[in-house]
Amino acid sequence: MIKAALFDLDGVVLDTETQYTKFWGKQFRRYYPDSPGLEHKIKGMTLTQILDAHYAGKKDIQEVIIHELNEYEQQMSYEYIPGFEAFVKQLRQHHIKTAVVTSSNLAKMEKVYRRQSGMKLYFDRILTSEDFSKSKPHPDSYLKGAAALGVRPEECLGFEDSINGLKAARAAGLFSVGLTTTNSREVVAELCDMVIDDFTQISPADLLV
């Protein structure tokens, strides 16, 4: 029986994933011009993990990237994915617990709250990168998300868009719903139990059986 729903943030709750792809694409083209596509491989990683993986020992470059990312996030749009608000309200009317499980840090979330002041009302818990020791595709974040809501992983729905995120949700034992906001339907379908383009294509009745 489904008792909870766990949501990734960027590309699932908020229509921000393409904006981050542009930002990281610019950074990698600057510092790794001979390694195209790195911006797609980092999906699901925390900022600290991205910097450690690709800019280890390069403190000056890390500081530049952090500064530019902070400025970029100040100007970003934080609109909801179509249908999300209606869908999450319906879930809560069915007494389904809800949580965000994101690789974003608290500093980024403060920017989100300034633009979407009511977002916290949609969730019982919001877990950020500070809450996990391992990033997606490791299931740690989703296992901790389920534990935070007091439910078992198999009692959870997991909503994801990235390859690493979908792998994490599946590894954790969630019923996974993949959104095509970041990857093609063909890619997403291989990694989840159900595929949707956005939340206008689904209702709680489709899942709470």
UniProtKB/TrEMBL annotation:
Q: Where is the signal peptide?
A: none
**One Pfam family name from the record?**
Hydrolase
The record's annotation in InterPro entries points to: HAD-like_sf, HAD-like_SPP, HAD-SF_hydro_IA, HAD_sf, PGP-like_dom2
Please give the Gene Ontology molecular function terms for this protein: sugar-phosphatase activity
Q: Which Gene3D superfamilies match?
A: HAD superfamily/HAD-like, Putative phosphatase, domain 2
Q: What keyword terms does UniProt attach to this protein? A: Hydrolase
Q: Which NCBIfam families match?
A: HAD-SF-IA-v1, HAD-SF-IA-v3
* Protein name stated in the entry: HAD hydrolase, family IA, variant 3
Please name the source species. Hallella bergensis DSM 17361
Q: What is the lineage of its organism?
A: Bacteria, Pseudomonadati, Bacteroidota, Bacteroidia, Bacteroidales
